[in-house]
């Protein structure tokens, strides 16, 4: 069984947010509830100021603190390396949201930042948060893995597009969107990335493209000191820097 | 069994024949009205808007409802510790307060759990899933387990005391077990926060001790508050008068000094550190909740309790206890906000997380306090809370 991981090349990423949009559409997410986001950082002022950005999915950590703190076992590490939530046993205590160092878990029961409240425009059916016009087919939805339209009062997060990736034939090493044989099994954010800044493959296979990129281009992980050991690696190259902090401190002038 | 026999059996446990004192009646009426208004509003909002009626969000996951929960659960543990001091350490001076402390502890636990049920996403699922999940790596699972055991032990303890069984081996065993659980439960609740290295403003091995200490102090203040409301003839006996008017105020004063010392250590460490996320300590200086804690919760009650000439007066005890309870409640709110103020990976553009509780969240206050006062008034009327063990009255 492959242990899937992602590599994001920051030298290629343009911060276009196509990945964010693709994720929203693929997973029927509410506006503002961005499992995949691009964060922006300012440093300095004119004429030497600069703006950097950082695409940020769930890190699907090897040693996820969100899983450790979950009192019901609803947050768990899947066999393919993804960190998932079982919506049928999540009690909505939100402790995992407290314990995730990357802020990638979401609570839909909040006041909407934009009006009109989209949940009123597309009112929910049954126990779901809403009934979006663009929704995942019913047979693909899998609440035990946090896939599909989210029920009320549970926490949600990126699934590494489990519903796609888990269908990949056994023995697949790289999920390459340019390869017609693997495109349908590749996460939506990787497929849609116009500058091809994202790579997805088996971290346990030394022949995989992700493994080679990590080795050759010095892949690094966010907040490695936490011990969570993310399965998402960044290639910083020479020019852009990975924001080493989560800080919102004002840039020094 | 006939209806008459049932009535006789019930009469052994409840003083139905007794008329409620004016204060008990007032507490029940105020409590019932307050609970009706609070719960009515909260339920209406939860049914119409769901948990979006709270101002919590993906960035501020825990808000005021959790502060209420902390307040009542920690106080409950403190009260239970006080109720066990006689059995565990032989401090016989605390016997006259033991029954009332156990009852208040039970009420705090019931109110705390009730407020949690209104906050948590899926409360009924929690009851079904949590007992069998055995997630031993989760501090929250341990906390739930300890507090559930605590509830059972408190019920047994109250039953034993209420039926006059103060000194059997079983009674002492329950008191000792309860004491241990009431150290473990708030300690684990402290770990729920203190273990979070990703939330530097909370990350501290002192947090369990701080929770136990503040829980104990609120417990003493609760006892002062409620004993100051008792009619004079109930506090005439020398041992009771000595406990209520001398021991408890001094204990409160010492506990306050300990809380101040711990808080000072926390604040000064937080302000000094420039580790990322610790800037929340500077931000809290701008929060009204912080200053309510410092001025109303710590400074004023300490001054009032520092002088023997005034700390014996029921009115002064009432005021000091009320001020401390208000202050410590807001300190719980501020603690929650501080740990989440600096967002996790949201970029520069997001700014610090802003949070002010919604009307629904504030209405949990009358709801929780109303339930508490209603049950306490009823208990004081029907359950002979001033009972004490016979030997201590010699």
Helix count of chain B equals: 15
What is the H/E order of chain A? EHEEHEEHEHEHHEHE
Q: Span between N and C termini of chain A? A: 50 Å
- Name the pair of protein chains with the most residues at their interface, and give those residue counts: A-B, 52 and 48 residues
Order of helices and strands of chain B: HHHHHHHHHHHHHHH
Helical residue percent band of chain A: 10-25%
What composes the largest sheet of chain A?
A: 3 strands, mixed
Distance between the termini of chain B: 40 Å
Shape descriptor of chain A reads globular
Number of distinct beta strands of chain A? 9
Question: What keyword list fits this structure?
Answer:
heterodimer, A: 253 residues, alpha+beta, three-stranded mixed β-sheet, two-stranded antiparallel ribbon, 7 helices, 9 strands, globular, B: 394 residues, mainly alpha
A few lines on this structure:
The complex is a heterodimer of chains A (253) and B (394). Chain A has helices spanning 18-26, 65-69, 95-99, 118-121, 162-165, 188-192, 209-216; strands spanning 4-9, 37-43, 50-56, 75-77, 83-85, 105-107, 155-157, 198-202, 232-235.
Could you explain the architecture of this structure?
The complex is a heterodimer of chains A (253) and B (394). Chain A is α+β, with helices and mostly antiparallel strands and 253 residues long. Helix content of chain A is 16%, strand content 16%. Chain A has 7 helices and 9 strands; from the N terminus they run βαββαββαβαβααβαβ. Chain A has a 3-stranded mixed beta sheet. Chain A has a two-stranded antiparallel sheet with strand order 2-3. In chain A, strands 4-5 form a two-stranded antiparallel ribbon. In chain A, a hairpin with a 5-residue loop joins strand 4 and strand 5. Chain B has 394 residues and is mainly α. Helices cover 72% and strands 0% of the residues of chain B. Chain B is built from 15 helices and no strands. Chain B has helices at residues 3-13, 22-49, 64-89, 95-119, 123-133, 139-162, 169-194, 207-227, 238-272, 280-283, 288-306, 308-311, 314-341, 359-362, 364-382. The longest helix of chain B has 35 residues, at 238-272. The chains are: A alpha+beta (253), B mainly alpha (394). At the A-B interface, strand 2, strand 3, helix 2, helix 3 and strand 6 of A face helix 5 and helix 6 of B.
